[in-house]
Amino acid sequence: MIITISHLKKFYQTHQKEPGFLGSLTSLIHRKYQTVSAVNDISFDIKEGELVGFIGPNGAGKTTTLKCLSGLLYPTSGFVSVLGFTPFERKHAFLKQIALVMGQKNQLWWDLPAQETFLLNKEIYEIPDEQYQKTLSELVELLDVESLLKVQVRKLSLGERMKMELIAALIHSPRVLFLDEPTIGLDVVMQKKMRDFIASYNQLHKSTILLTSHYMEDVRQLAQRVIIIDHGKILYDGKLDNLVKKFAKYKVLSVVLDTYVAPDKFKEIGELTDYNFPKAIIRVSRGASNVAAAQLLEKFPVDDLNIEEPDIEDIIRDVFTKAEK
Amino acid sequence: MWFLLSLLNPLLVLLFWRGAFESSASPLGDWSYNAIASYYLLLVIAGSFLQVHVEEDIARRDIQSGFLSHYLTKPFSYILRKFFQELPWRIIQGFFGVLVLILFSFFLKNGLFLSHDLIGIIASIIIVVLAFFISFLFKMIVGISALWITEFYGLQELIGIIDIVFAGFVMPLALFPPFIRTLSYILPFAYMIYFPILSFLGKLSSVELLQTIGIQFVWLAVFGIIYRMMWRRGIKKFTGLGQ
Predict the structure, then answer these.
(1) Would you call A73 and B66 a contact, using CB atoms and an 8 Å cutoff?
(2) Distance (Å) from the C-alpha of residue B242 to the closest C-alpha of chain A?
(3) B18-71: per-residue pLDDT in tens?
(4) Chain B residue numbers touching A109 (CB-CB < 8 A)
(5) pLDDT greater at residue B186 or residue A220
(6) Looking at residue A55, what is its pLDDT?
(7) In what side-by-side order are the strands of the sheet with A302-308?
(8) Partner-chain contact B70 A12, CB within 8 Å
(9) Which of A266, B84, B178, B187 is deepest in the core (most CB within 10 A)?
């Protein structure tokens, strides 16, 4: 196990301030503190080479967990081990093997070309010349940024900057890569390129990658394994397919109709969730989906029929709302 | 070039002293006009070369905006990184300070009042180097106090004012009334600016030079210990926020 977390808890103290002027005065004398449990007893193991996606709504505890793993945060309690090290001790031998990329926060020097930052990192991580050149050209090719290497970072677009951020983070070939919301703020095309790159990198180098996201597409396309986290607790940890099977007790039949059919006629098949003639969407229980499909084809003027898995977003939303109860 | 403006402050004060010298023969005891003028000119260099401003960056960018995360996840000492980030600024500003100094020293009738004693000059260089390290460590401590204090501006201004008075930017500490003078010799600020200037002016005897160096080492040790303690405790409090 390259990463082990056991009963990790991270609590923050925030102080409550009453609004208004009187509130400001009172807070000088007596501060009321509230404990926020960002991470509240989570445990999991990750093997070398795994690509794991953390999903959860904002404030779920994903970034906090990542920061505990990369050594930025001091856990309130629990055990964390990455590559055999205790991350918070931040030993150089540990730091040389990890990388942390945060969506919107640049490590690149603003006024110089990205290449200068790469050279700086080369020195910081003590990368030998040959290895540096090799890694650099491989990454530059994979991300297709050859022409941008000598351009000032401030002049690059957000997508181009993210690519450079990735190169800066990967130039020392880390064994473990932490990506915090890597696709946030990027356009659809860039998001896909980012995902493709992450997947290829994981395949090529067998590096362990943990990414957090609240975009379903990131998870759907990338993660072999998914950990769902909400309110500091793990709701699900396993393969994406199993998530669908376990939590989605239904399948979705999407139909294109030839002639108009009254909505209540669909009741005998299943639950009609959306009807915009000629398209209709019907939910049927998983086991009965084939029978229902056959019935539809037999009794209704169907032009086209698709049996689909429910949208992961919907499944996860259900998981969250169930957890809140 | 905005920093040049603050460098010229000492020169304005000099005008005031010129007036004082014109009205009375020796208003400052054993400080001749040349000496006081040289003092203020050297303040220009001291201000540009020995005044470290690293705390602004540390408090606002690294701690409050969370960029410290980038430094913490790399296998390189934070304080060393900050040192090498600050050094080029000091060299550039120090260079301009020297130019201003050379330019204005032409206006001094008897040239710059400087020590001519070789040992004195060597000691002065040592004192200057130590002063720089003390200044740097002190500002590092001020900077990382942002890990505890959210309204950093207040602290910054307070330190700034104390610094101006007790480092000798207003006037030579020897000219202060006894109580303030003694206080300024106890505080570390004099050892960052005032004593380096005095040693270059040749106003320190050999014993005093050694004393100064000794006290500087003590301050270095004290600040070093304080910094380490604050860093260890403070880092646990760093929440990596500001995203």
Answers:
(1) no
(2) 9
(3) 777 777 766 667 788 788 888 888 888 888 889 899 999 899 888 888 889 899
(4) none
(5) B186
(6) 85
(7) A271-276, A279-285, A250-257, A302-308
(8) no
(9) A266
- HEC per residue, chain A: CCEEEEEEEEEEEEEECCCHHHHHHHHHHCCEEEEEEEEEEEEEEECCCCEEEEECCCCCCHHHHHHHHHCCCCCCEEEEEECCECHHHCCHHHHCCEEEEECCCCCCCCCCEHHHHHHHHHHHCCCCHHHHHHHHHHHHHHHCCHHHCCCEHHHCCHHHHHHHHHHHHHCCCCCEEEEECCCCCCCHHHHHHHHHHHHHHHHHHCCEEEEEECCHHHHHHHCCEEEEEECCEEEEEEEHHHHHHHHCCEEEEEEEECCCCCHHHHHHCCEEEEEECCEEEEEEEHHHHHHHHHHHHHHCCEEEEEEECCCHHHHHHHHHHHHHC
Asked if residue A323 has pLDDT above 70, the reply is no
B77-82 contacts at long range (C-beta below 8 A, 24 or more positions apart) = B78/B231, B79/B140, B79/B227, B79/B231, B82/B54, B82/B57, B82/B58, B82/B140, B82/B143
The mean pLDDT of chain A is: 87
Q: Does residue B24 belong to the interface with chain A, where contact is any CB pair within 8 Å? A: no
Of the pLDDT bands very low, low, confident and very high (cuts 50, 70, 90), residue A182 is confident
- Planar angle of CA A314, A320, A321, nearest 5 degrees: 90
What pLDDT, on the 0 to 100 scale, is given for residue B225? 97
Dist. CA A135–CA A305, nearest whole Å: 49
In the predicted model, what is the mean pLDDT of residues A70-95?
A: 93
How large is the C-alpha radius of gyration of chain B?
19
Taking contacts as CB-CB distances below 8 angstroms, the residues of chain A near B240 are 67, 72-73
Averaged over A220-246, what is the pLDDT?
A: 84
Rounded to a whole number of angstroms, the distance from the CA of B232 to the nearest CA of chain A is 11
- The number of C-alpha atoms within 13 Å of B71 and in the hemisphere containing its C-beta is 17
- Which residue, among A85, A105, A122, A165, would best test binding to B if mutated, counting the most B CBs under 10 Å from its CB? A105
The amino acid at residue A140 is V
State ipTM. 0.80
End-to-end CA distance of chain B: 32
